[in-house]
């Protein structure tokens, strides 16, 4: 077993920020990216944590991300905000627009934010938690590269097309779920390949369209959607809402733009947020209790709420720090 490297969260932040700025990213963009990478490590989401520094630098060197991007924010309708990410990471665009979007949602009760021309690689729970922290219900989605075959098909068409949802709670952590519509997240597939681990059956097919548990073969073939036709339908919805509707790249277009460089996807993101209090009316406590009764009914059966494990990890990591695989640490330092 490889020895691990132990880092405090502050050390992890310095490692990430220094790596990104030395690679050529602006301090502002490096800070926004570092926030999510360290948050993912803190919460135990290794597939979207500091490992992604390797991909960020690779994407920069391939010329597929603008390292000095300056997002442009435009309110095009009372309940619609558009952000041109300037071919930078979605994270900076989200950070820049979060306050204005929150104000808009509280004015209108519901609003949508479109982030166009953004590079996206990050966990989407991070995006929706930006708004649950502000007391809003939020839904977010984005296409990616065409890596996933439709149900019944044998060729890549969809991205992993993640969907995230967040519901703020009066006491305690928000209810948050974030999942790819593929049967396995692309980051997890890459970590399996990196560590030479076999996949569980049913996650992908090789380039001949045959089932495979070899992550390298699946990367050459296609990933599968979760739940067969149900996951395939949700993946299609993401292509429509966060691709065609916002007039940005679909997953095949993103992969074509990549041109074989292995960079992060380029395209758009759609965020829809709602103000709980405006929807719940004059007796919000009654409405909030209805939600809490659902959560209690889940946990009373011994079932786990989504993200519960993340929030547990978060409490531990804040005081005890994180561990990194030594080989990954050395690869990051070598950048």
TrEMBL record:
It comes from Candidatus Pantoea deserta. Belongs to the LDH2/MDH2 oxidoreductase family. GO terms for molecular function: oxidoreductase activity. The keyword Kinase does not apply. Keywords: Oxidoreductase. This is Ldh family oxidoreductase. The keyword Oxidoreductase applies. InterPro entries: Mal/L-sulf/L-lact_DH-like_ah, Mal/L-sulf/L-lact_DH-like_NADP, Mal/L-sulfo/L-lacto_DH-like_sf, Malate/L-lactate_DH-like.
């Amino acid at each position: 077993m490889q020895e691990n490297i132990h880092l405090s969260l502050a050390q992890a932040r310095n490692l990430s920020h220094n790596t990104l700025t030395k690679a050529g990213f602006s301090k502002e963009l490096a800070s926004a990216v570092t926030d999510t990478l360290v948050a993912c490590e803190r919460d135990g989401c290794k597939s979207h944590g500091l490992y992604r520094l390797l991909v960020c630098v690779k994407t920069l060197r391939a010329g597929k991300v603008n390292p000095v991007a300056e997002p442009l924010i435009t309110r095009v309708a009372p309940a619609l905000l558009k952000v041109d990410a300037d071919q930078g990471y979605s994270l900076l665009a989200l950070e820049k627009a979060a306050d204005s979007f929150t104000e808009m949602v509280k004015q209108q009760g519901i609003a949508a934010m479109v982030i166009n021309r953004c590079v996206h690689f990050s966990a989407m729970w991070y995006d929706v938690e930006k708004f649950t922290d502000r007391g809003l219900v939020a839904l977010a989605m984005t296409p990616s590269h065409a890596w996933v075959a439709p149900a019944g098909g044998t060729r890549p068409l969809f991205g992993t097309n993640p969907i995230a949802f967040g519901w703020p709670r009066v006491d305690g952590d928000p209810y948050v779920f974030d999942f790819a519509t593929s049967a396995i997240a692309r980051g997890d597939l890459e970590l399996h390949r990196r560590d030479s681990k076999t996949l569980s059956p049913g996650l992908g097919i090789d380039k001949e369209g045959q089932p495979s548990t070899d992550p390298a073969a699946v990367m050459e073939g296609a990933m599968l959607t979760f739940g067969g036709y149900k996951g395939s339908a949700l993946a299609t919805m993401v292509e429509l809402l966060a691709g065609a509707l916002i007039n940005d790249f679909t997953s095949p277009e993103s992969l074509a733009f990549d041109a074989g460089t292995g960079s992060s996807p380029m395209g758009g993101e759609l965020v829809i947020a709602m103000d709980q209090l405006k929807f719940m009316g004059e007796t919000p406590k009654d409405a909030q209790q209805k939600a809490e009764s659902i959560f209690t009914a889940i946990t009373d059966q011994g079932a786990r709420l989504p993200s519960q494990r993340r929030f547990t990890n978060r409490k531990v990591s804040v005081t005890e720090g994180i561990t990194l695989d030594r080989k990954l640490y050395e690869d990051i330092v070598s950048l």
